[in-house]
Every structure is written in structure tokens, then in C-alpha cells.
Amino acid sequence: MAKTRQAKEKVLSEVVALLKKAKGLVFADYAGLTVKDMQELRRSLRSKGISYEVIKKTILGRGLKEVGWDKVDTDNLKGMISVAISESDEVEPAKQVMAFAKTHEKFQVLGGILETNFVDAAKVKALAKLPSKQELLGQVVGTIAAPLSGFVNVLQGNLRGLVQVLKAMSVKQN
User: Fold this and answer.
1) What range does the domain containing 101 cover?
2) Do 84 and 38 lie in a common domain?
3) Are residues 98 and 34 in the same domain?
4) Whether the predicted model's global pTM rises above the 0.85 cut
5) Residue 27 sits in a domain of what CATH number?
6) How far is CA 59 from CA 46, 67, 116, in A?
7) Of 20, 23, 21, 17, residue with least CA distance to 91
8) Which strands form 81-86's sheet, in the order they lie side by side?
9) Are residues 49 and 96 part of one domain?
10) Averaged in consecutive runs of 10 residues, what is the pLDDT profile of the chain (174 residues)?
11) Is 38 exposed, middle or buried (0-12, 13-18, 19+ CB in 10 A)?
12) What SS3 state is found at 86?
């Protein structure tokens, strides 16, 4: 049974609401996956705060135009389209989808959106290899803290030397 115009408009408004909140988006072709595989993918994405939707190309294209992402052409996306959307992280959808694609060869990554620009599957794979935001923050903190900890060690070295000299003098006097 065909959907009514109101039902399609409701779906379109839901898609637009998702796209407006999105920081990271990955398109994939899910053709050939079993229901069990799809449930596994949804569960793993949901645990990371990523929503996963199957959206018709026409509705997705209209939603992207409403949001202002006119450069993304959904006609070039082949197959049955699904979208992984993250509201909080630009890279996490790429990481999770690529991890799933490694174990399920029928699942094909088609591309994504990064900073309102379409990126192809190769760039999504490159994004997936980047460290997470938390890892990058940890590296920055470590880089900032390294000179400070070195300075503290230098100061402790002088104190240790003084303590050793005083101890040696006390042993020599006894």
C-alpha cells in the first residue's frame, strides 16, 4: 500500500530534524544483509549514540536540500541506502560503520557528509582511521604536560643530589 502525501511529509520532516542535528553522516548500501545483521548494526551504533535509518533516496535528497546540503547528489548513491547519523561526533559514525563493514562484506560504505560537504567512501575510510576525540585530547594534554614533568624531574634531581650529599656527609661524620 502506497504512503499518503501526509505520511511522506511526516517522514520528510523527521529526516530534516535528524539532518539538522547531525555532525557526522555516513551513507551505506545495506542490500544483502540479514535482519539479524541489521539488528546487530543498529545495536552497536545505538550504544555509541548514533542513529541508523533506512531512508528512500528521494526523501533523503529532499531532506538534504531543505537542510542546505545541495551539493550532495543522492542519485549517484547506488543500492539501498541507509544512513548512520551522529549528533555529537563527526568521526564516530565512520569508525563504527567501517568496523561493521570489515566483518560483513555485503555491507558497502558509499560516502558521507563532513562539514556540509560530500566525501566519498575512500575519505570515510580515512576518517575511520583517525583517533577518537578523547584520544586526541589525551595526546594534547600529554604534549602540554611533558615539558612540565621534565622540569619537575630536573628540580627533583637537584633535591635528590642535595639529600645524597647531606647523607654522605652525615655517614662520614659518624
Assistant:
1) 5-130
2) yes
3) yes
4) no
5) 3.30.70.1730
6) 23, 12, 18
7) 23
8) 50-54, 81-86, 24-29, 108-114, 117-120
9) yes
10) 80 89 90 91 92 89 85 77 89 91 90 84 89 82 78 75 81 79
11) middle
12) strand
